[in-house]
Design goal:
429 residues; alpha/beta; Aspartate Aminotransferase, domain 1; 2 domains; 14 helices; binds pyridoxal-5'-phosphate; PyrdxlP-dep_Trfase_major; pyridoxal phosphate binding; transferase; PyrdxlP-dep_Trfase_small
């Protein structure tokens, strides 16, 4: 008997080793990691240099508490990261995971307005669908019925007004006007922030708005005096072919950028936010302290992993690689659409790609969730890891598959991924 509390009753293979884009289980089976776990393992598995850097850090300085010390490794990383994502004057607040990071961003936006003398601003507008995390605050921010339902009695929905998802077929700037209308309905003086994933990940298979959308969002946020939070936990750190997805879509600068997943690429728990100077200075020049903190925030071993990952991302130009291999994978998926018309939409950018699965009879997203997880299970049987999802539509329908292998994947491995996926689609459709 195992003492592990599994996430579901399905049987799990037991992983023992990872190398490049492959994972191996205790029965010696090999799996091509077509989704980098949950879009995490950006540099691939088993890079000894990251482990060595972490071990050296643990031996030299394993821990300091953020209320007492900064650390040399955190000082170096904050500067390198801010320059890498093109926000060189922003301040880095480190935490352990994406949910902690989005919740930190929400709390920072709230405190910013209180410090400015506007305590009436507390609402945070987010989109449906969206996924910002599993903790109660980040889940309340998320527009994902299936993951929220059980916990809504613990939330305060009126604090989290929801904006419908962008429609890439519309004019981007006009599409973004929905935010202005919602702000007017809510009363802009009650709203602290607007938070959105520049390219939607887990909840809606790599959905991005049309050009012009974020430029208009930026203007509307400025006019209403609200903080624009870009949740780049999944889309950032090169995955979309640029350091931040927002910069590939627009020249827009957020007030707070939230990062996670690819930061330490799964080698250690590391996430965080980058705050614009005016946000940081308003808090530091007001009460003088961010009223928030986690024991493991800025953990030196995690930050050492982040530094080593950033070295690899820059040295191997994995951002450029994401663009190139992403174009290859996208073209391969589009070619598969001719064989499997249930692949209603194939979309995304860089190596954040999604397939929306549809019902041929109705031309709509599948009514009953389940087809994506059946394809995911068939793929796993063939040795391919994917990231199936459902529930993008408000009524819970809308099955999709998210694909996002490590940015270090080779051209031949992309071909292998496509062949394995074709087999799984053949098995199920
Ligand atoms: N934000 C986005 C955009 C995500 O995709 C996720 C996770 O999928 C999160 C936040 C939550 O991150 P974590 O699972 O590390 O808490």
């Amino acid at each position: 008997m195992s003492n592990v509390f599994y996430r579901s009753s399905k049987p799990y293979p037991v992983a023992v080793r990872g190398e490049g884009v492959f994972l191996y289980d205790d029965a010696g089976r090999r799996y091509l990691d077509g989704s980098s776990g949950a879009l995490v393992a950006n540099i691939g598995h088993g890079r000894a240099e990251v482990g060595e850097r972490m071990a050296a850090q643990a031996a030299r300085l394993p821990f300091v508490h953020g209320s007492q010390f900064s650390s040399d490794v955190l000082e170096e990383y904050a500067g390198r990261l801010a320059r890498f994502v093109g926000l060189p004057t922003f301040r880095f607040w480190a935490v352990s995971g994406g949910s902690e990071a989005t919740e930190s961003a929400v709390k920072l936006a709230r405190q910013y307005h209180v410090e400015r003398g506007e305590p009436g601003r507390f609402k945070v507008i987010t989109r449906v669908p969206s996924y910002h995390g599993a903790s109660l605050g980040s889940l309340a921010a998320s527009g994902m019925g299936a993951r929220r339902e059980l916990y809504t009695p613990l939330m305060r929905p009126e604090a989290w007004p929801k904006l419908p998802k962008p429609d890439p077929a519309r004019n981007g700037a006009e599409d973004a006007e929905g935010l202005r209308a919602l702000l007017e309905r809510e009363g802009p003086e009650t709203v602290a922030a607007f938070m959105a994933e520049p390219v939607v990940g887990a909840s809606d298979a790599a959905l991005a708005p049309a050009p012009g959308y974020y430029e208009r969002v930026r203007d509307i946020c400025d006019e209403a005096g609200i903080i624009f939070i870009a949740d780049e936990v999944m889309s950032g750190m090169g995955r979309c072919g640029s350091p931040l997805a927002l910069s590939r879509w627009s020249g827009v600068t957020p007030d707070i950028a939230v990062l996670g997943k690819g930061l330490a690429a799964g080698y250690a728990p590391l996430a965080g936010l980058l705050a614009a100077p005016q946000v940081y200075e308003t808090v530091m020049g007001g009460s003088g302290a961010f009223m928030h903190g986690f024991t493991y925030a800025g953990h030196p071993v995690s930050v050492a992993a982040g530094l080593s990952v950033l070295d690899i991302v820059e040295r191997e130009d994995l951002t450029g690689a994401a663009k190139e291999r992403g174009a290859q994978l996208l073209a391969g998926l589009q070619a598969l659409q001719a064989r499997f018309p249930q692949m209603m939409q194939v979309r995304g950018t860089g190596l954040l790609l999604g397939v929306v699965l549809g019902d041929l009879a109705t031309g709509q997203a599948f009514e009953t969730p389940g087809i994506a997880s059946r394809i995911g299970a068939a793929a796993l049987k063939r040795g391919l890891i994917t990231y199936p999802g459902s529930g993008a539509e408000p009524n819970g329908r809308g099955d999709h598959l998210l694909l996002g292998p490590p940015l270090s994947i080779t051209a031949a491995e992309v071909d292998e991924l496509l062949a394995l996926l074709a087999g799984a689609l053949e098995d199920v459709l």
